[in-house]
Amino acid sequence: MAGTVRSVGAALEALEVLARHEELGVSALARELGVAKSTSHRLLTTLRHHGLVEQSPETGRYRLGMRLYELGHQAMTGNRLRSVALPVLAELRRRSGLTVQLAVPDGADVLYTERLETTLGVTLMQQTGLRLPAHTTSSGKAIAAYNPAFADARRRLGFPARTAATLTTVEEFDRVLDETRRQHGALSYDEARIGISSCAAPLHGPAGEAIAAVSLVGPTEAFRQQGSHYLQLVVAAARTLSGPL
Question: Between the chain's N and C termini, which has fewer beta carbons within 10 Å?
C-alpha cells in the first residue's frame, strides 16, 4: 500500500512539473523529479495510458494531455461556487462593461477559475486558469485580508516584482491588507501588468474566512477615473454571493 501511495505521489509530482513546461523529455523529467530515467519513463508511460499526458509525434517529448482538461471541466461544471456566481458575474459585467473574474486561493497565489470578458470587445487578460502571486493582484489582496493562512503563505515566499508598481515588502503588504479591510475590497494599479488595473472583494465562507474573490479588470486609465465606483460594484456583488455559500 505504501508503495502504491508513493507511486501516486510521484505521478502527481510529474504532472506538476509538466505543467511548468511546454514539453519535457524522459531525461529532463527525471532530473526535475530527482529519479532514475527508468522511473521517469514508467511514470510517463502510465500517465500516457490514462490520457493525462501525450507524446509529441514531432519531438518525442511529453506534455499534459487533454484528459486533464476534461476532468477540470467536469470539476468546474459541478462546482457550487461557480454555479452560484455566474449570474452575479454576468450582471456585474453588464453594469461595469469590464472583464469580470472569479479567483480562489492556491498556496501563495490566486487561481482565476472563471472569466467573463469585457463587452468592449478587447481581450485584456489570458485564458481562465491564469495563476498570479497574491500580492500582485486585487483578488489576492482581498482574500489575504480575510484569510490569515493565505496571507502568511505569501509572506513566507516574499514579494517578487512583476512591474515597477508591484509592492515588494511585507510592510507594504500589511498596509494594503489593512486598507482592504477598511474599504471591504482592494484596488490594484499596474501591479501585474502595466496598463491593466483591477479591484476585488472577498467572498466569505461559513466561518467568515475569505474563500474566493470577485474582481473587475480593465484599462488603468478607466480605473484612475472610476476606481471607487468599480470597487463599490464588486463589494456589492461579493456580498450578494457570500450569502449562499
Answer: N
